[in-house]
């Protein structure tokens, strides 16, 4: 199903800005169509109010609103559908506080709450076809990039330590690490070799589709950090990937999943495109929660200019020592 909304391809969970998707015949540019997943739950969408907001440069952003976080989350767990759970308060500070609180008491059920349909996508063709041509672009705006880089600078060990090893999964031509950052080993795992070869921070890289085979090609207890920037929404087998992350992390090592509300909507999983930012924090937190070996996850809003630039969120946890 294809829907038109203004001039920006927009979904309930993410928008796409300044990109082209040349391998999709129905998506010629990033300014002409809105896509909705074929598996959209109509009842869930009927409870949402779509609100367009202007982003820098005039690009509209879609925000989902619903009657409240607690009610929406409980509704998902009891009725098997995931409506957007949080209405944006008028205060940016209040919204940031709410984001930070999502994982304080997330109310996860005893068993994995997601269904196979939650991880379906509008475009189920091979990801290697979609990522065949390199895209030397950034998928979030400059302010969001700076916020992520600042966060990495805060949590990473001092640069130049030969004993430090970092893995960047779903990597590309840029990892958004601090300028000049180096370590004994910085491995990149991604979908396009040309992009990976241009990434200046990597000491080695491998091309792999984690949706086809989630196995990470590294030994147990290898890395101090595993990072993933704005790509967790494309994982169709996240539990297996998170199990692999905890395997390759050293005891006490940290995983950092960061994301915004920008994406390739035809390749993002169904549950992501149907939900909003607080929901995404809850979803990624669940990936950690249901993976043995991770500590309690923490959600952090690092958005630099709420309402005026792309939002930026981090969900992080460490491997139990």
Describe this structure in words.
The protein is α/β, with parallel strands linked by helices. It has 9 helices and 11 strands. It has a 7-stranded mixed beta sheet. Strands 1-2 form a two-stranded antiparallel sheet. A two-stranded antiparallel sheet has the order 3-4. It is globular and about 40 Å long.
What order do the helices and strands follow?
A: EEHEEHHHHEEHEEHEHHEE
Portion of residues within helices: 10-25%
Class by alpha and beta content: alpha/beta
* Average predicted confidence as pLDDT: 78
Beta-strand level of the residues, as a percent range? 15-25%
Large-scale geometry: globular
Q: How is the main sheet built?
A: 7 strands, mixed
Span between termini: 47 Å
Radius of gyration: 18 Å
Strand order of the largest sheet: 7-6-5-8-9-11-10
Which ranges are low-confidence, i.e. pLDDT below 50, for 5 or more consecutive residues?
1-13, 15-88
* Tally of individual helices: 9
The total strand number stands at 11
Question: Key terms for this structure?
Answer:
single chain, 321 residues, alpha/beta, two-stranded antiparallel sheet, 9 helices, disordered N terminus
Short description:
By secondary structure, the protein is α/β, with parallel strands linked by helices.
Topology readout:
Layout: E1 2-3, E2 34-35, H1 42-46, E3 49-54, E4 60-65, H2 69-79, H3 92-101, H4 127-130, H5 142-155, E5 161-171, E6 183-190, H6 193-198, E7 204-207, E8 223-229, H7 238-248, E9 249-259, H8 270-273, H9 277-289, E10 298-301, E11 313-318
Parallel strand pairs: 5-6, 5-8, 6-7, 8-9
Antiparallel strand pairs: 1-2, 3-4, 9-11, 10-11
């Amino acid at each position: 199903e294809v829907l038109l909304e203004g001039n920006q391809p927009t979904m309930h969970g993410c928008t796409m800005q300044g990109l082209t998707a040349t391998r999709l015949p129905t998506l010629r540019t990033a300014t002409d169509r809105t896509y909705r997943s074929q598996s959209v739950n109509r009842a869930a969408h009927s409870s949402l109010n779509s609100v367009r907001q202007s982003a820098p440069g005039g690009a509209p952003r879609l925000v989902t609103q619903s009657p409240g976080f607690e009610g929406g989350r409980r509704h998902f767990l009891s009725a098997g559908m995931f409506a957007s759970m949080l209405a944006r308060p008028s205060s940016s500070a209040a919204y940031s506080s709410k984001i930070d609180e999502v994982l304080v008491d997330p109310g996860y059920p005893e068993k994995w709450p997601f269904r196979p349909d939650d991880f379906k996508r509008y475009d189920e063709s091979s990801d290697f076809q979609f990522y065949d041509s390199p895209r030397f672009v950034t998928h979030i705006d400059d302010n969001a990039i700076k916020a992520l880089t600042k966060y990495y600078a805060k949590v990473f060990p001092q640069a130049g330590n030969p004993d430090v090893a970092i893995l960047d999964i779903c990597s590309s031509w840029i990892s958004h690490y601090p300028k000049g950052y180096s370590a004994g080993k910085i491995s990149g795992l991604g979908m396009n070799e040309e992009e990976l070869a241009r990434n200046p921070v990597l000491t080695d890289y491998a091309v792999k589709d984690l949706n086809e085979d989630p196995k990470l090609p590294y030994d147990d207890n290898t890395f101090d950090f595993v990072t993933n920037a704005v790509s967790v929404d494309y994982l169709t087998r996240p539990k297996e990937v998170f199990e692999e992350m905890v395997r390759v992390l050293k005891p006490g090592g940290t995983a950092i999943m960061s994301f915004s509300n920008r994406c390739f909507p035809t390749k993002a999983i169904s549950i992501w495109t149907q939900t909003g930012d607080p929901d995404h924090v809850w979803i990624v937190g669940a990936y950690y929660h249901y993976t043995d070996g991770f500590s309690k996850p923490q959600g952090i809003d690092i958005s630099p200019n709420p309402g005026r630039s792309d939002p930026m969120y981090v969900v992080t946890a460490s491997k139990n020592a």
